[in-house]
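okkk here we go again. third time trying to get the S-adenosylmethionine bound version out, last two times i messed up the smiles copy paste (missing a bracket lol). double checked this time i swear
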Amino acid sequence: MAVTGDFSGIDPGRPSAARVYDAMLDGSSNFEVDRALARQMLAAEPRARRWAYANRAFLRRAVGFLLDEGVRQFVDLGSGLPTVGNVHEIVHGYRLDGRVVYVDVDPIAVAHSRLLLAGDERAGVVCADIRDVDAILADPVTRRLVDLDEPVAFLAVAVLHFIAQNPGPMLTGFRSVAAPGSYLAVSHLTTPGDLSADAAEVVADYNARTATPLTFRGRAEVAGLFDGWQLLAPGVVPVDEWWPEPGDLEELEAHGRVPIWAGLGRLGPAV
Ligand SMILES: C[S@@+](CC[C@H](N)C(=O)[O-])C[C@H]1O[C@@H](n2cnc3c(N)ncnc32)[C@H](O)[C@@H]1O
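finally!!
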């Protein structure tokens, strides 16, 4: 089946966050401009591919934790191109009645997700900017799949660093409609202490050419994104130190720290 959609606004000469990340994760839904940028980044900073995989592993562990906590509905903000371990696959592997809404602003990511989810009654895709909270909540896909009277998990994984202005108000928008027992998961790039000049140049080049430039934030700023949520243990930590599994721990020892902060917040009293 072919990927269809309105691609009229896409400039194949301009790298996109979704497609560069897909190239980093060894995916095939990307253009040469994205692969070239991923190659440049990996040449300047070979650890970047491992960082992308570590982020993806956090997403998997966080969703697993939320499923164990009884969460049945997930809104994946900035969901990206479908790749190994998509949220709906994890959710449906655990609970057949779990529901997932994917949200992304990238038309190619949205088209691929729609194709993958064709005929799936328990998952859907919204094409929107995650800053447009009202549009996402009012979208028929969200309304069909998410019952806001029940707890919902908002996943903002590796997306808020593509938002230059303070993402706080947007997150408050989602929090204000969420039932007690809802969750917010965040992972967010920070400046690696030892980022080489070459890697900094690749980031600057990406920022100059893309519609979704990167904004690095420090630990305190990322912790501030959980304003109004009860930040759960272990707090805001490097992504690979967030409840690592045995295999992840070996990785942790073998490589240095991943410059991505991660945390999980819960709304309402502690259980
Ligand atoms: C690095 S990918 C992360 C994908 C997935 N969340 C993960 O962690 O594996 C970031 C995604 O966020 C999307 N994105 C960036 N800014 C966005 C915005 N303002 N609204 C919606 N999606 C956005 C990009 O199109 C891209 O697909």
